[in-house]
Design brief:
The protein is α+β, with helices and mostly antiparallel strands and 88 residues long. Helices cover 35% and strands 28% of the residues. Helix 1 packs across helix 3 (75-83).
Length: 88
């Protein structure tokens, strides 16, 4: 199954601004696509994923959320969460 990573953010969120360069590094290092979605401009996701804070990063495998990280996530923790669900 394909692993999908989504990061929900909102403008003016300091934690989101700090998270952005880490997402870029992880994207480059692991070769995974990380979709970044503005939760305020896309409110349907707030209910769908029960978002409470931004940033929130989800690792999704198939149609199931396998990892949920609310708030700022350090690079090592984010990479470990994604690697747990990558094939081989």
């Amino acid at each position: 199954m394909t692993v999908k990573v989504i990061n929900f953010f909102q403008e003016g969120c300091m934690g989101c601004d700090e998270q952005a360069p880490i997402l870029q590094e992880v994207r480059k290092d692991l070769g995974v696509e990380i979709e970044e979605i503005d939760a305020i401009k896309n409110p349907q996701y707030i209910k769908e994923y029960k978002l409470r804070v931004t940033p929130t990063t989800l690792v999704i495998e198939g149609d199931r959320v396998r990892e949920r990280m609310e708030g700022f996530v350090h690079r090592e923790d984010l990479e470990a969460a994604i690697r747990r669900h990558m094939p081989g």
